[in-house]
Design goal:
34% strand, seven-stranded antiparallel β-sheet
């Protein structure tokens, strides 16, 4: 005989805290895939990716290349034409709007460092991703070799990602201004949270 209860069974959504500073970033896997000549399988990041996107719900910024969400619980961006290239950061993230002159100063400093072997960068000047050398510039280290692809230019890009041991800078062109984030080094996604 089954037991019955007269109490109503109301379910409430558990209050799960968002881990601050947690980073979901497949950039290293994308670099490795580029060098190996095959696209990496990122299926194991799908659950974490969705969690990061939902956590970052807030204001959405777009240009012809990137879609970026920024809210009280984090930041998330993805490429419009290549959404498996993404980045998610959980926790409080603050950014700032920059004038063209301010963005130019930051960009020149970061691109100069990248061309000298300090940090890793991904820069897109056009919406065409990697169709020609003038569309992009990448500089990174793979198996102890410094690799540069595309053409480093000093004109302002649609999007720049510059990463060092200290953290990550994102620079995104909007219609009238630039959006810039400096993200101190975060906690990588623990292996146990992979789907």
């Amino acid at each position: 005989m089954a037991l019955r209860s007269n109490k109503s069974k109301t379910r409430t959504k558990p209050n799960i805290p968002t881990p601050s500073g947690l980073v979901i970033d497949p950039q290293r896997l994308l670099f490795e895939g580029l060098e190996a000549g095959s696209f990496p399988n990122l299926e194991h990041l799908s659950l974490a990716r969705e969690f990061a996107r939902e956590s970052a719900e807030g204001r959405c910024y777009e240009n012809g290349l990137i879609r970026l969400w920024h809210g009280p619980q984090g930041l998330y961006y993805e490429f419009k034409e290549f959404p498996v290239a993404f980045y998610g950061r959980l926790g409080v993230v603050s950014g700032e709007y920059l004038s063209e002159a301010e963005a130019q100063e930051i960009f020149w400093e970061d691109i100069s460092k990248a061309t000298k072997g300090y940090g890793e960068t991904v820069v897109f000047y056009t919406e065409r991703l990697m169709q020609s050398e003038q569309d992009f510039y990448m500089a990174y280290t793979y198996e102890n070799f410094r690799i540069e692809r595309g053409e480093a230019r000093f004109s302002l890009p649609l999007f720049m990602r510059f990463e060092t041991e200290e953290g990550l800078r994102l620079l995104m062109r909007l219609e009238q201004e630039y959006l810039c984030f400096w993200l101190p080094k975060g906690q990588p996604l623990p292996r146990g949270l992979l789907a």
